[in-house]
Design brief:
The complex is a heterodimer of chains A (about 170) and B (about 400).
Chain A (H helix, E strand, L loop, with lengths): L3 H8 L13 H24 L5 E5 L5 E10 L2 E10 L23 E2 L3 E2 L5 H7 L6 H22 L6 H5 L1
Antiparallel strand pairs in A: 1-2, 2-3, 4-5
Chain B lengths: L2 H22 L20 H8 L13 E5 L5 H10 L4 E5 L23 H12 L4 E5 L6 H13 L10 E4 L4 H14 L3 E6 L5 E7 L13 E3 L19 H20 L7 E5 L7 E2 L10 H16 L46 E3 L6 H6 L12 H10 L1
Parallel strand pairs in B: 1-2, 1-4, 2-3, 4-5
Antiparallel strand pairs in B: 5-6, 6-8, 7-10, 8-9
The chains are: A alpha+beta (about 170), B alpha/beta (about 400).
Protein name (chain B): Ubiquitin-like modifier-activating enzyme 5
Keywords (chain B): ATP-binding, Coiled coil, Metal-binding, Nucleotide-binding, Ubl conjugation pathway, Zinc
Family (chain B): Belongs to the ubiquitin-activating E1 family. UBA5 subfamily.
Chain lengths: ~170, ~400
């Protein structure tokens, strides 16, 4: 269910250990540190492998995350805003990653631009609580989603490169 | 147009609005006391007839109860309408979504309501159907920090009597995150609730009564699904997230409210888990005990309280429902079976859950032993400050 490339990517993201959500005041800070550590390691690794594809930051409580992700097709870069809240049930449930700019453009989305994940994602997440964090959700959720949906949206003309928009 | 003719036009339009308002307000006025009188003008006569028929002893007590419906979509809206028509005392509605034309394959909402918040649109319709019901609506997502605190507060104090807890919570949401949030709240408040759901392929559904400490909570096991023999891995998902049918949703809402009425008005037997397989017209039932190793600490606490209460009770007669174990049926004329799921990479042992025939778990989880033996390397954060990490992340 997980292909070799994804497995390799996953093995490069550090695992987390603190099982705490935003309602667990003190422990949440530790979890948040682990989240940042894992994300930094993942982004650095992506850069090294010439596969840099997103940036994220959070509010100071770490309950709301925002940033951008991008996808390269035919040497052109398509960039999208990313945002999500950390649900109170985190890390038992994964964050619901949203690309609000694409809301309404694809059926593979729930309201508000939340991406529709494959059947494999939730079992995989559930089996890896609390070891998986935001970096894993990006690698296993958003990454594969972009790879499938964006080329399709570009071909259909629903997503345009920013140079095309201006002209 | 000059100011004078504009004013005249405004007056005309105002008059028109008034007439339209009157036309749309054909609803009845409030009724002080439920009457059993059989006349055309009594909206409660057929409900109160349940007493004369010997089905319910105390129908009018339905007005004392307060029920929270979380998720006012295909199942929740119909659920709320049924409870409104039954004359429930108070309804609290929670949903953050808007009515869309894409919802019109389901019941309750109408095209002209597109764009309105689901809770506001529902309140307007329901209030018109039965003005005796008290409504309280909240248009927000319960899973975020601030909203969750408010949500818990309303469950705790939103009863029919000010400051009293809600009597029952009905989960009619369409996602795992919201169900887990309701589960967290209800375990912490020791609050009885019903979970309900319809599968994404629209051909199965279920309702489940959760009494914290006494029956399995939503975290005690992976989500349960009704086996419909449609292979999840070959399910065609091209270009869609979920399908839905007004039929399946109507059936599930009906099963849910039927059991809510039985629970509140104390008649018949209330189902603990009732599944609906639309392809075979099969309705599996079962009861599941809580998991002593449940990942929710509030559930484990409720279990201790329940066990203590059981030990203190002096049983005079065998408790209804747990008396004699019925012989296990060996008939299986529809070929219904529990499907072993081997979704895992490394083939975990099937958890030893006592599920009913035709019910399975959505996926398996690693066993406790596996988890303990499994000690992967994890990040270490002892020396880092959060501020430094946030700054590093920004500079990448």
């Amino acid at each position: 269910m997980v292909d070799d490339l994804t497995k390799k990517t996953l093995s490069n993201i550090p695992l987390l250990k603190t099982k705490a959500g935003p309602r667990d005041q003190n422990e949440w800070v530790n979890r948040l540190k682990e989240e940042y550590k894992a994300l930094i390691a993942y982004v650095e690794n992506n850069k090294e492998n010439d596969n840099d594809w997103f940036r994220l930051e959070s509010n100071k409580d770490g309950t709301r995350w925002f940033g951008k992700c991008w996808y390269i097709k035919d040497l052109r870069k398509y960039e999208f805003k990313v945002e999500f809240d950390i649900p109170i049930t985190f890390p038992a449930t994964a964050p619901e990653i949203a690309l609000p700019e694409l809301d309404g453009k694809t059926a593979k989305m729930y309201r508000g631009g939340k991406i529709c994940l494959t059947d494999h994602f939730k079992p995989l997440w559930a089996r890896n609580v609390p070891k998986f964090g935001i970096a894993h959700a990006m690698a296993l959720g958003l990454g594969p989603w972009l790879a499938v949906e964006i080329p399709d949206l570009i071909d259909k003309g629903l997503v345009k490169h920013k140079d095309e928009k201006e002209s | 147009m000059d100011a004078k003719s504009l004013k005249k036009r405004i007056a005309e339009l105002e008059a028109e609005v008034e007439t339209l308002k009157k036309a749309s307000n054909q609803g009845r006025s409030k009724i002080e006391k439920m009457s059993a009188e059989v006349v055309d003008s009594n909206p409660y006569s057929r409900l109160m007839a349940l007493k004369r028929m010997g089905i319910v002893d105390n129908y009018e007590t339905i007005r004392d109860y307060s029920v929270a419906v979380v998720g006012v979509g295909g199942v929740g809206s119909v659920t709320a309408e049924m409870l409104t028509r039954c004359g429930i005392g108070k309804l609290l509605l929670f949903d953050y979504d808007k009515v869309e034309l894409a919802n019109m394959n389901r019941l309750f909402f109408q095209p002209h309501q597109a764009g309105l918040s689901k809770v506001k649109a529902a309140e307007a319709t329901l209030c018109d159907i039965n003005p005796d019901v008290e409504f309280e609506v909240h248009n927000y997502n319960i899973t975020t920090m601030d909203n969750f605190q408010h949500f818990m507060g309303r469950l705790k104090c939103g009863g029919k009597m000010q400051g009293q807890p809600v009597d029952l919570i009905l989960s009619c949401v369409d996602n795992f995150e919201a169900r887990m949030a309701i589960n967290t709240a209800c375990n912490e408040l020791e609050q009885v609730w019903f979970e309900s759901g319809v599968s994404e392929n629209a051909v199965s559904g279920h309702i489940q009564l959760i009494k914290p400490g006494e029956t399995a909570c939503f975290s005690c096991a992976p989500p349960l699904v009704v086996a419909t023999h449609t292979d999840e891995r070959t399910l065609k998902r091209e270009g869609v997230c979920a399908a839905s049918l007004p039929t399946t949703m109507g059936v599930v809402a009906g099963l849910l409210v039927q059991n809510v009425l039985k629970y509140l008005l104390k008649f018949g037997d209330v189902a603990f888990y009732l599944g609906y397989n639309a392809l075979l017209d099969f309705f599996p039932t079962m009861q599941m005990k809580p998991n002593v190793d449940c990942s929710d600490s509030a559930c484990r606490k409720c279990q201790k309280i329940y066990q203590k209460r059981l030990a203190e009770e002096i049983p005079t007669e065998p408790e209804k429902g747990s008396k004699v174990e019925e012989p296990v049926s060996t008939e299986n004329e529809w070929g219904i079976e529990i499907v072993a799921e081997t979704l895992g990479d490394d083939g975990d042992k099937e958890q030893n859950l006592d599920l009913g025939k035709g019910i399975k778990v959505a996926y398996t989880l690693p066993s406790k032993d596996d988890k303990e033996n499994d000690n992967p390397e994890t990040v270490t954060t002892n020396t880092d400050s959060l501020e430094d990490l946030m700054a590093t992340m920004k500079q990448l």
